[in-house]
Amino acid sequence: MNRLAFELKLDEEEVRPADYFDMMAGVGFGGLCALLLGRLRMTPRLVADELEKVATAIFNTGDDEIASAEYAMVKLRMVIEDILRRHGHPCNIDLRDDSNNRCKVVVFAALEVVADHCRPFRTYVHPRSSKGVRHTFVDVACAILAFPEFLPPVLIGRPGREERFSGIPHGFHNPMQEVLKESQWLFDKERPVSLVLSLGPGQGPIISSKDYRGTTSSRIVSKTDTVAKELSQRFCGVGEYLRLNVDKGLDNVELDDWHALGSIVSHTEVYLELPTITAHIDRAVQWLLRRNGSVTLEQLVCSNNHSQIKFLQQNHNEQLLKVVKQMNEIVQEAIEKITLVDAVGIRIPISLQLCRSYETLIKVIRVYYEDQRPPGTRLVKKGHFELVSGNEGEVVKPIAWRCVVTPGLTVEMSMIRHDYHTEGMNCPRCGHAYTDWTTKGWTTWGASR
After folding, report:
1. Fold adopted by 2-302
2. Percent of the chain at pLDDT exceeding 90
3. pTM metric for this prediction
């Protein structure tokens, strides 16, 4: 957002992602970021500060693991409530946003009994969800952060029908597939997509072997890399899709390494300063400012075959290149030509390749007159004409032609009549008789101006 603020000539704190993105989503801490950015409309800098407070509450455990896990959940709730209070919201605020906020947010949590099921929690009304069921912001925030390794599950639902949620669904560390499906319920399928931005965790797969009680678990927590590769293949050639993920230095960072934020910041800044990444970010900013992409939502969501999107994008690129080529040809034709104005004022474009030498140009002029038969053809056939150029109408000498001819040059023809003793000598164009000649030479009708 710093880059966007720079382009808009605004202070960084004046630019809020919720004003530029129509939809945000995530799981775990990514889900909490989406809620803070989209639902509460915070700036990225504020979100970073609040995340540090939340992480400290979760991972600052004591010696008694069971007691500390339960207590960590209590502290987590207190921290979330404190965030709401400090930013002017009631502690029992609903997750659902009934205001005119353009940014819709959906976050996903895992059911304890079905860990590989992705349960969505939305800030908006969805056709498939019950309109009467409303969840609090605090409950949902705790549910998406209830990592089994550190926290107990969170109960959400009506009394007697509560469901237990425990953090990130198995296999959904990158929920982009679900987000794309969700978007088709919200927006028109023909709507152009400006930017699809995916932010990775900056680390490889993690296998969890124990839950917060120390019980052995075979649950694989992350398939981020696999999903990211599938999406990269699917959206190959689609400029509106951007994946950012710090690929070096964070492999050994664990969830509870919040005391080492300095190294995380350093590796992230190095990654963002890479020329390729900087170029991608610059392009993304331009897409956001335009708010008009070349791919529709239907093409992104409804195509299970990435080759179709690639073909559509390739076809778009081919059409664009074709137009650019035609424009270049037009420009080159205008630049790489001279203009000949004949004796009656007709402008004749001639390729520079056909008039590099004076002799070749004369041949071209003769062929033109023989083919088109304009006024003055008889004089041209006899060679009774001259070429003039410049504001003063200076005669162009054959020996000097190679020094004169340049792209864009305009030369004019002047017809020469040697029969100046003949009465009634007429203009080749209008036929007007010209009698005011001198006996020292010949009479010349210049090209019509």
Report:
1. Cytosolic phospholipase A2 catalytic domain (3.40.1090)
2. 16
3. 0.62
